[in-house]
Amino acid sequence: MDDGHPARRVVDILTGAWQAQALYAAAALDLPDHVAAGHTTAAQLAGATGADQDSIERLMRLLTAMGVCTDAGTDPGAVAPDADYRLTEVGDLLRTGHERSMRDMAVFYGEEFHRAWGAVVPAVRTGTSGFEHVFGTSLHAYLETQPGAGARFQRAMNAGNAFFPDVAERYDFAACRTVVDVAGGSGQLLSTVLRAHPHLHGALFDLPRVTPVAEEHLGRAVRPGRWETLAGDVFDAVPSGADVYLLSRVLQDWDDARCARLLANLHTAMPDSGRLLIVERVIPATAGPGSSDGPSPSDGPGLLAVLWDLHLLMAAGGRERTLDGYRTLLGGAGLRLETVTPLALETSLLVAAPAEPKEA
């Protein structure tokens, strides 16, 4: 617990990465799965993972202190030879079989993204992503060429989608009939919207390498006849004529020029009555402990947005933007921002429409 001393605050910040890596180790070793399967002592966990028992005891002590698990056999935070571990709600989210599992997110962040953050200084100095400094290629190229990386990354992205139900609930789809999820990945957002609104027909548009993953998910989640997948490049063109377009965490990956091109393609595709639903984190206009709408020194409103902003530089060379930044991008593409609605995990739903009727 923070004792209020400035030096303690520095130490807490510096050691935050250690907690993240402890969580990664738990996920990589499948400790939550083993605990759920009944391997609840350090000796049993060491046997199940092939790891050193003393090291497992020390890792479990930290995970217990972090609230990832509890020890039913001793006082909270203590570790003894007869420790009997149980998962908390936090630890349960790291199980492979959990319906909202965050296990793959913990692994990708603990491996590739952890290494990318190790290049934070050269990334800040040059404006080139930390990922490129470490891996010698962009994140997008890495996902294309590294066996299994694309699927792991997509599962990691899916793990952070707690706000998807909010999108389905907080936008009125009643008058809509068709929805296109642009660069929709595995189809998690589209399936959430379609399940919540049975009258809708959906299409997912993404690169050819992605659509088979989406088809697999949509085939399980939504009945046949209500959806289709379309392959293509969003920077070339977007399917036209839909009532609603979804664009979830896509603009954050690209610089202003590429975003302008994508938004222009969307404007061309949209009818005058169409709407574009953008899901992104918005950087507060002001930041700092003394501001009402900026991040506090620890975990106040806006902290996730500014954290993810720098993370996007480390990972892909992307960025989060302020509300004025989004207005500027949209305006340059002939679109106007109508509403902004807060979602879970400091994410926002930005609804945009054509600024003026198109010429007949």
Given this structure, which CATH class of the largest domain is correct?
Answer: Alpha Beta
- Which structural class best describes the helix and strand composition? alpha/beta
Cα(first) to Cα(last) distance is 64 Å
Radius of gyration: 22 Å
Strand order of the largest sheet: 5-4-3-6-7-11-10
CATH superfamily of the largest domain: Vaccinia Virus protein VP39
User: Average pLDDT across residues?
Assistant: 90
Largest sheet: 7 strands, mixed
Give the second-level CATH assignment, the architecture of the largest domain: 3-Layer(aba) Sandwich
Portion in helices: 40-55%
Indicate the topology.
Blueprint: H1 6-14, H2 16-28, H3 31-36, H4 42-49, H5 53-65, E1 69-71, E2 85-87, H6 89-92, H7 103-117, H8 120-126, H9 130-135, H10 139-145, H11 149-159, H12 164-170, E3 178-182, H13 188-196, E4 201-206, H14 211-221, E5 227-231, E6 244-248, H15 256-269, E7 275-280, E8 282-283, H16 303-315, E9 321-322, H17 323-332, E10 335-342, E11 348-354
Parallel strand pairs: 3-4, 3-6, 4-5, 6-7, 8-9
Antiparallel strand pairs: 1-2, 7-11, 10-11
General description of the model:
With 360 residues, this protein is α/β, with parallel strands linked by helices. The chain has 3 domains: 6-92, Arc Repressor Mutant, subunit A; 102-160 and 284-313; 162-281 and 320-354, 3-Layer(aba) Sandwich (Rossmann fold). It contains 17 helices and 11 strands. A 7-stranded mixed sheet has the order 5-4-3-6-7-11-10, with helices on both faces. The protein has a two-stranded antiparallel sheet with strand order 1-2. The longest helix has 15 residues, at 103-117. The relative contact order is 0.09.
